[in-house]
């Protein structure tokens, strides 16, 4: 059974520091991995999607890496801003119909 | 291009009642999945609809049922509500057969059971 873990559960950094968020999964047979952002009480905003054949994906200040063999992904956010404060969730696609298995998320606070 | 929409935004129900939540997928998508997200947890897969049929289901009781209409929109029904059903219900849409398997999420419906 696939399990997705995100550590730490919460993180607080001063503005300008780089953020490093970790995601691990137990079964390497994934189709892709997605990183989402969730603001309090809101839905999910997709940040990056990494296909199983890719090693990394970049968008602006965001960079995500994927190491399937070790079951790990890391999301890097450069030069953090208070507006980056949110919960970040990673999810793996476990079948060809797109079913997602989520981690519990990392709650990030960026202080001015 | 409209994204995934859900209604209502918020809902308050009493234990034992029934509730229906609605979802319209992103234009061009034919598959709808529903997820339940309890406070402080990641979303949990409820079920997925494709071609008006339930294609796969997560570990949820039969009190949770759904429907997909010919225009691909979907409903989630929950009967005999329990306090533990209080959660954010998220709908995701996708296009079956694409190589990316990317899911697009709606804003969610916050259900409170009292």
Question: How does this model look, in words?
Answer:
The complex is a heterodimer of chains A (112) and B (114). With 112 residues, chain A is an all-beta fold. Chain A has strands at residues 4-7, 10-14, 19-25, 32-38, 44-51, 56-59, 62-67, 72-77, 86-93, 100-102, 106-111. In chain A, the strands form two sheets. In chain A, strands 2, 4, 5, 9, 10 and 11 form a six-stranded mixed β-sheet that branches. Chain B is an all-beta fold and 114 residues long. Chain B has strands at 5-7, 10-13, 19-24, 31-37, 44-50, 53-57, 64-68, 74-78, 87-94, 104-105, 109-113. In chain B, the strands form two sheets. In chain B, strands 2, 4, 5, 6, 9, 10 and 11 form a seven-stranded mixed β-sheet that branches. Chain B has a four-stranded antiparallel β-sheet with strand order 1-3-8-7, with no helix packed on it. In chain B, a hairpin with a 5-residue loop joins strand 7 and strand 8. The N and C termini of chain B lie far apart (37 Å). Classes of the chains: A mainly beta (112), B mainly beta (114). Chains A and B meet through strand 4, strand 5, strand 9 and strand 10 of A and strand 4, strand 5, strand 9 and strand 10 of B.
């Amino acid at each position: 059974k696939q399990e997705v873990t995100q550590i730490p559960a919460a993180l607080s950094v001063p503005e300008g520091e780089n953020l490093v968020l970790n995601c691990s999964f137990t079964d390497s047979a994934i189709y892709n991995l997605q990183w989402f952002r969730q603001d309090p009480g809101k839905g999910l905003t997709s940040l990056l999607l990494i296909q199983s054949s890719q090693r990394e994906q970049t968008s602006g200040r965001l960079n995500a890496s994927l190491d399937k063999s070790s079951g790990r992904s890391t999301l890097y956010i450069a030069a953090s801003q208070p507006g980056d404060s949110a919960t970040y969730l990673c999810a793996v696609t476990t079948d060809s119909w797109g079913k997602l298995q989520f981690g519990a998320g990392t709650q990030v606070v960026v202080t001015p | 291009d409209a994204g995934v929409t859900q209604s209502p935004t918020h809902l308050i129900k009493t234990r034992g009642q029934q509730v229906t939540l609605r979802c319209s997928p992103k234009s061009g998508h034919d598959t709808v999945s529903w997820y339940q997200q309890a406070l402080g947890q990641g979303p949990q897969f409820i079920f997925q609809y494709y071609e008006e049929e339930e294609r796969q289901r997560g570990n949820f009781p039969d009190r949770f049922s759904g429907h997909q209409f010919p225009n691909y929109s979907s409903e989630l029904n929950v009967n005999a509500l329990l306090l533990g059903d209080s959660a954010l219900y998220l709908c995701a849409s996708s296009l079956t057969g694409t190589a990316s398997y990317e899911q697009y999420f709606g804003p969610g419906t916050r259900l409170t059971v009292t």
